[in-house]
């Protein structure tokens, strides 16, 4: 029986696939009267007969008129292995690619002949490369000559790479020919060295990803702290309001226009900016403008406002996390060498950079940016030159709050949307601003990315909590040496 099955599979004819599948599943019968073989399907108390060559239904028979062709577990495993090889010859590219992946995961020396036949016929570059890799893995467990196995080790090391390749080669080390031990060890060592570099690169990426989140959360705080000297403890709640604005927009879209869901974040961005900018303007006009020059009272007032906003959100939306979905273009991930990059993180990094450079352009090239910088450097001189400093303060606070709101839109894609969302980022945001230099955008940029990368390199060694403590200690020590941060603002009033 095994020889006949292997002979059928060796033909490479895709028409053999249904026959072998039926045999493995116990659906292959022969008719007792003439020994004709049929694929069968249940049809009431009878069995419907299907011609194994044409695939056409040719009638029905009582179960007693037929006899099942029985197979044991060993034969069933052989059939499964041969089926994986047979689908390598399918006319469908997706089926061939899946078959190559299946052989790669469960290599078998029996599939080598079919793999080589399929490789010779394959015209698609991607599928061919996958088949050649599967062939190399299968060769390691075969009785092929040493030179072929040596070439297979090199291909596994070069084409698969990473932990998967190291696992395959380590698994083969117990049964490999002693003459190949040195080649195997060298390949494993090379893979591990390369993987260490990729792991370091992955940590840098994680650090940049975390840094971009910190940049989004801190950039609005940097301009309000720098221009107005306000310690705004409600800044985290602006981030939280932006995230809830995203939730509301998505909820409305789900109910009324589900086909627009992929555009939900684009719609949520201006909504979140306007909502939080208006709330920020109201806070500045209603509370903060009466407290300039009194930093302790400002800190206490904004802390009280943050508690009010948190409780208001709890009363409206409840204390539990709210679901904010990922649009299709932010879902999933893609490999890049020996690391994996998720689409949502990549888009957040790109979005953070876009916000940063847009704000930088506003500060450097617009009349409002010029007035803002003038007030930052010398408030009294700016006022004497006709700049309405109270309104600059008000619109600066609104702008900072609006930027925090669009930060909330981004954070809703990677964090839980809850009334406490802002509390997770407010301390880190202040650390970024102080470390980079109060009111300096480039300082905020460098500070956010530096702290993000430092955190991600410390976490694997000392843990997340102790890593944050060490970062805080390092910032305190740094501020002792440079009280104005990395990039200190310059101006007569500041230096005085």
TrEMBL record:
Record-annotated membrane-spanning stretches: 204-231, 263-283, 295-313, 346-363, 390-410, 430-454, 461-479
UniProt xrefs under InterPro entries: ABC_transp_permease, ABC_UrtB_bac, BCAA_transport_permease
Localization, UniProt: Cell membrane
Membrane-topology annotation of the record: Multi-pass membrane protein
Primary location recorded for the protein, binned into one broad class: membrane
Alphabetized Pfam families for the sequence: BPD_transp_2
This protein's UniProt keywords: Amino-acid transport, Cell membrane, Membrane, Transmembrane, Transmembrane helix, Transport
Key word Membrane present: yes
UniProt keyword Cell membrane, yes or no: yes
Family the entry assigns: Belongs to the binding-protein-dependent transport system permease family. LivHM subfamily.
Name this polypeptide is given: Urea ABC transporter permease subunit UrtB
Gene that produces this protein: urtB
């Amino acid at each position: 029986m095994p020889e006949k099955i292997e002979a059928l599979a060796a033909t490479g004819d895709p028409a053999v696939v249904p026959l072998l599948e039926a045999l493995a599943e116990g659906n292959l019968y022969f008719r007792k009267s003439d020994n004709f073989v049929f694929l069968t399907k249940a049809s009431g108390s009878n069995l419907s007969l299907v011609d194994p060559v044409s695939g056409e239904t040719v009638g029905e028979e009582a179960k007693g008129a037929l006899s099942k062709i029985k197979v044991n577990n060993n034969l069933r495993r052989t059939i499964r292995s041969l089926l994986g090889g047979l689908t390598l010859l399918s006319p469908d590219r997706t089926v061939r690619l899946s078959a190559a992946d299946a052989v790669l995961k469960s290599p078998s020396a029996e599939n080598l002949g079919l793999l080589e036949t399929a490789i010779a016929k394959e015209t698609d570059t991607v599928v061919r490369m996958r088949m050649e890799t599967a062939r190399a893995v299968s060769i390691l467990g075969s009785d092929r000559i040493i030179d072929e196995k040596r070439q297979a080790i090199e291909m596994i090391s070069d084409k698969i790479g990473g932990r998967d390749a190291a696992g395959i080669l380590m698994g083969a080390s117990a049964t490999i020919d002693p003459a190949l031990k040195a080649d195997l060890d060298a390949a494993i060592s090379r893979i591990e060295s390369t993987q260490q570099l990729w792991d370091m690169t992955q940590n840098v990426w994680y650090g940049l990803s975390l840094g971009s989140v910190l940049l989004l959360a801190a950039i609005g705080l940097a301009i309000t702290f720098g221009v107005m000297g306000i310690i705004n403890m409600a800044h985290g709640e602006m981030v939280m309001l932006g995230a809830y604005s995203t939730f509301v927009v998505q909820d409305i879209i789900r109910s009324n226009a589900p086909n627009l869901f992929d555009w939900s974040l684009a719609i949520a961005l201006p909504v979140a900016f306007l909502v939080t900018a208006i709330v920020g303007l109201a806070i500045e006009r209603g509370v903060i403008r009466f407290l300039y020059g009194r930093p302790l009272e400002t800190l206490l007032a904004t802390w009280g406002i943050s508690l009010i906003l948190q409780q208001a959100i709890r009363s409206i939306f409840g204390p539990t996390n709210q679901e904010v979905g990922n649009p299709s273009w932010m879902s999933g991930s893609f490999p890049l060498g020996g690391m994996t990059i998720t689409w949502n993180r990549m888009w957040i990094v790109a979005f953070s950079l876009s916000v940063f450079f847009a704000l930088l352009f506003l500060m450097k090239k617009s009349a409002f940016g010029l007035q803002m910088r003038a007030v930052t450097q010398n408030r009294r001189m700016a006022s004497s030159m006709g700049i309405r400093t109270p309104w600059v303060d008000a619109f600066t606070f609104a702008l900072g709050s609006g930027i925090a709101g669009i930060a909330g839109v981004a954070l809703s894609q990677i964090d839980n949307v809850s009334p406490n969302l802002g509390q997770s980022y407010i301390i880190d945001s202040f650390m970024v601003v102080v470390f980079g230099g109060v009111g300096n955008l480039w300082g905020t940029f460098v500070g956010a990315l530096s702290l993000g990368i430092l955190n991600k390199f410390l976490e694997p060694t000392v843990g997340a909590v102790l890593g944050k403590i060490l970062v805080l200690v390092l910032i305190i020590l740094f501020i002792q040496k440079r009280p104005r941060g990395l990039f200190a603002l310059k101006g007569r009033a500041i230096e005085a």
